[in-house]
Write a structure and sequence with these properties.
Elements lengths: L1 H4 L4 E7 L3 E8 L29 H11 L3 E7 L3 E9 L6
Antiparallel strand pairs: 1-2, 2-4, 3-4
């Protein structure tokens, strides 16, 4: 991704507000095309050429996060960045 944009930095940080914790992953590569964004969590969806395989990564991440009571969200601006936020429930919220 970053190679296409001529740049690319990945930043990872966490936040905790007591009710939940959030893991942020920010990529300053090309971002995600608007027409692709609605499909990124679909199992076996791939925006690349058919002979390059199919992705299940975000579908798996979504299933894993939901299984612990969390969620995953994406903010992106094509040509600028993509940020994923993995929101984990607080320790007392899941037990």
């Amino acid at each position: 991704m970053g190679r296409e944009a001529g740049r690319g930095e990945i930043r990872i940080w966490t936040e905790c507000n007591g009710a939940h914790g959030t893991l942020h992953i920010l990529d300053t590569g090309t971002g995600i095309r608007p027409q692709v964004l609605p499909y990124i969590y679909k199992r076996v969806y791939c925006s690349r050429a058919a002979n390059q395989g199919a992705d299940i990564g975000l579908a798996f991440c979504t299933m894993a996060m939901e299984s612990v009571g969390g969620s995953i969200h994406c903010k992106t601006e094509y040509g600028k960045y993509t940020e994923f936020m993995l929101i984990f429930p607080g320790v007392n919220d899941h037990g």
